[in-house]
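Example noted here:
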Amino acid sequence: MGLAPGQRLVRASRSLRRGFAATSVAMAAGDVSLTQARVIIRSVEDLPDDLGPGVAASGEAMMIGHCETFAQQPSLSHHWKHG
C-alpha cells in the first residue's frame, strides 16, 4: 500500500530542503509540479554513490528542463506522472 498524499508531500518537502534547491525553485515558480518533483528526487537519489559530485546536479537540472516538454505532450505527460 502506498503513502497517503499528505505523507508524500511531507517526504518531498524534506527532500527539497536537503539538497534539491533547483527543483524547489522550479516548483515555487510553477515550472515543476509536486509529482514531477517527486520523480526528480527519486531519480537523483537512486543514482550510484560513486558518481562525480556534479552528476546529481546535472541530472536534476536536465529533468527540470524536460518538465515543460512533458507537460505539453499528453502521452509523455501521462508517462511522467505515472511512470
